[in-house]
Protein: Peptidase M42
Organism: Methanoculleus sediminis
Amino acid sequence: MVKELLRKLSDAHGVSSSEGNIRDIVRAELAGVVDEFREDAMGNLVAVKRGGDFSIMLAAHMDEIGLMVQYIDEKGFIRVVPIGGWYGPVLYCQRVILHGKKGPAMGVLGAKPPHVMKEEERKKEIKIENMFVDVGAASGEEVKDLGIEIGTPITIDREYTDLAGTRVTGKALDNRVGVAMLIRALQQTDSPHTIYGVFTVQEELGLKGAKVSAYSLNPDCAIATDVTIPGDHPGIEKKDASVEMGKGPVLVLVSASGRGLMADPRMTAWLRETAEKKDIPCQLEVGTGGNTDATIIHLERGGIPSIPLSIPARYIHSPVEVVDTADVEAGVRLLVEALKSRPEL
């Protein structure tokens, strides 16, 4: 079962450029399973299962969106900048963890109370630039005594929790879901090909880690495991997001209306045929927004045939993301079965 692995990954903390905790979990889970670990200068972790000359890159980004300390005032309040794509109101009044030099320190995100706002202020979105972190300190010196300084990374304090049936909620399921899928696939696969399991960094800041690793490895093809938005809850229409939770992993044919990725049709055919032969449910998506590591991988070297394999996830880029673990399990099965063969390139 993938649930407990996903719990471990979701509850771990690793904002973009500070993914060390996630790397440690990956190494522990794959020790004795892969033939080699490599870690590059950016922090990408490559787990290699050696096979024949044909090579397949499987990429999953480790990083989560978070915040970083920008300024500490004389009263001990901390101003922050977002690391990754936050919607301001989601952050207001959240509890956070500041990962300082002396260990984790707890804090809360505050802002002007609505009770003292003017009517026009209440109608406006609360912006991150108007928020601050309160760690309970009475001065800037007290904050520094906690080991907090400019540049300290910050993550949301939220624990993974089971919901009804096979559904779960937690922070950073974007993209610890993809990491969990990749770990399980590497543990179970018996492929005749060389498999590069690449756990990438800084995807949330512009797909940076995947660019470096794809150039270095130069695989014959690539799959990026990530999450995507379903259109199965109030506030969104199926015409805007056609996939649903509980109906299997998603082959993303188009990312960002083609400005990102047009999935290679040969990769699509390979995965679709595998799903049909093995009776694994899967869905198709043509997306108008959002990108994955596959968007940058396919542009490296002379072009690398690529496709995202995504899991429907509600409320992404929030502390309460929701996925159906049955979709994750199906995604693992699809990867394991597909890796027994290869696309016709």
User: Anything to note?
Assistant: Residues 173-188 form the longest helix (16 residues). The chain has two domains: 2-64+171-340, 66-156. The two ends are 33 Å apart (CA to CA). The domain at 2-64+171-340 is CATH 3.40.630.10 (Aminopeptidase).
